[in-house]
Structure formats: structure tokens, C-alpha cells
């Protein structure tokens, strides 16, 4: 097997949209836009998911994957976890990160057992860290030897895929429409990867206020399909 083949299957497993982390139950604010009819078809969802990709996903999860993959020691991972919790102002988003992070840690530990993942799992168990799936994914990717651009692109596309599957059910849009949205996301994800690699670590947490407000409002919606 080539070096790329050695990490390909574990990477595909950890980025599978069917991975049981609970992503299917979270819309990350999309449902608030649906409730206000700001997102209501393929075109408006494509705009929304593009904005989500280039704002919150780039500056939170994307940066977390990169910083976890390049962390020098356990202390840096703990610091990154605390920063991810602090920058997640909407309560549901912070809770989603913790619950999905715990599941990603369990699964990644089975797929890619290594010291860094075990240390992070222990810190979460001890209450030293809250947990986040992007950090677990970055640690696993580093252990596998995945090049950073591939690691970032895979994580971003996996998240966009999960959101698109949720949009197919919630708007609803058809499966073909979902595939068109995903295909249109390819150059956008490539652009986001290039940006994440160049960003300063202090850029972690930059986001769009309107998106955060929508995520906060979701908690008080009268009827909901999703947890966030």
C-alpha cells in the first residue's frame, strides 16, 4: 500500500456523513432561517451553506482541525479546547460541540488508537476539557499522517454534506438538488482550505453576528426538527 492508501480508509470512515456522532440532529442555525423563510429552496440553501462555510466553519472548526493537527503537546490541545468552548457563544452550539466531540473521540479512538486521542479523551472525562469533534479529527488526522490540505478539505466537505442531508429533509429539496449543492461547494471548500492554512491562530472564533443570533433564537423556536 502507498502512504496515501494507508490513511485513506480510516479518513473516509471518520468523515463519513453516516458516522454516528449525532450530526444528523443538528442544523447549526439553519432551522432558524427555515422558520423565517429566508432559506426555502435549493438556491437559498446554497447561499446559506456557502456563508456558513466561509464564516463559522472556516474560523471555528476549520481552524480547530489545523491547530489540533499541529499542536505541540497536551497543554496546547487543552488550550485549544477551552478557546473553542469560549468562542461558541450560542448555548446549543457549545452543547453540540461537546456531545459530538465525545462521540468523535470514542470512534476515533477505535479507528486510530493513539496517545494524543487518549489524553484528550481523558481530559474530557476528567472535566479538564469540554470536547470538540474538530479537535479529535485533527488529532486523528495527524496520527494517520494525512496532509493538512486533505485533512481540512475532508472535514469541511463532511460537514457540508451533513448539512445538505439535513436540508434535503427539512426544506425539503430533492436528492439531485442536494448533489448539485455539494458539487457547487467543491471550489468553495478549496478556497476555504487555502484561507485556513494562511490564517493567524488569533483568528479563531471570528463569525457572522447574524448567524450567531439565529443559532441563539433556535433554542426558543416553538417547533423544531433539530437540536441546534
Q: How would you characterize the overall build of this protein?
A:
The protein is mostly helical and 228 residues long. The protein has a single domain (25-218), classed as Urease accessory protein UreF. The protein contains 10 helices and no strands. The longest helix is centred in the N-terminal third of the chain and has 28 residues, at 42-69. It is globular and about 45 Å long. The mean pLDDT is 94.
Quick overview of this protein structure:
Helices cover 71% and strands 0% of the residues. It is mainly alpha-helical.
DSSP summary: helix tally = 10
CATH class: Mainly Alpha
Q: Percentage of helical residues? A: over 70%
How is the CATH topology named?
Urease accessory protein UreF
CATH homologous group name: Urease accessory protein UreF
Quantity of strands, as a count:
0
User: Hey, roughly how much beta strand do the residues contain?
Assistant: under 5%
Largest sheet: none
- Could you report the average pLDDT, rounded to the nearest whole number? 94
Order of helices and strands: HHHHHHHHHH
Q: Which characteristics define this entry?
A:
10 helices; mainly alpha; 0% strand; 228 residues
Write the layout of secondary structure elements.
Blueprint (H helix, E strand, L loop, with lengths): L2 H12 L15 H6 L6 H28 L4 H14 L3 H21 L3 H11 L7 H12 L3 H23 L4 H24 L10 H10 L10
Helix pairs in contact: 3-4, 3-7, 3-8, 3-9, 5-6, 5-7, 8-9
Amino acid at each position: 500500500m502507498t502512504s496515501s492508501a494507508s490513511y485513506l480508509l480510516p479518513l473516509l470512515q471518520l468523515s463519513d456523513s453516516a458516522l454516528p456522532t449525532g450530526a444528523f440532529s443538528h442544523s447549526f442555525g439553519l432551522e432558524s432561517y427555515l422558520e423565517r423563510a429566508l432559506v426555502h429552496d435549493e438556491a437559498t440553501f446554497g447561499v446559506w451553506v456557502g456563508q456558513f462555510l466561509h464564516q463559522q466553519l472556516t474560523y471555528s472548526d476549520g481552524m480547530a482541525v489545523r491547530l489540533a493537527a499541529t499542536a505541540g503537546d497536551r497543554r496546547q490541545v487543552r488550550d485549544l479546547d477551552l478557546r473553542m468552548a469560549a468562542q461558541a457563544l450560542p448555548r446549543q452550539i457549545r452543547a453540540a460541540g461537546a456531545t459530538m466531540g465525545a462521540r468523535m473521540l470514542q470512534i476515533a479512538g477505535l479507528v486510530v488508537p493513539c496517545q494524543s486521542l487518549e489524553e484528550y479523551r481523558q481530559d474530557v472525562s476528567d472535566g479538564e476539557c469540554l470536547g470538540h469533534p474538530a479537535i479529535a479529527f485533527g488529532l486523528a488526522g495527524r496520527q494517520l499522517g494525512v496532509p493538512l490540505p486533505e485533512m481540512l478539505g475532508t472535514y469541511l466537505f463532511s460537514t457540508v454534506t451533513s448539512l445538505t442531508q439535513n436540508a434535503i429533509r427539512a426544506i425539503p429539496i430533492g436528492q439531485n438538488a442536494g448533489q448539485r449543492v455539494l458539487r457547487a461547494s467543491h471550489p468553495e471548500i478549496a478556497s476555504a482550505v487555502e484561507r485556513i492554512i494562511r490564517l493567524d491562530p488569533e483568528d479563531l472564533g471570528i463569525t457572522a453576528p447574524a448567524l450567531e443570533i439565529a443559532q441563539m433564537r433556535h433554542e426558543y423556536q416553538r417547533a423544531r426538527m433539530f437540536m441546534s
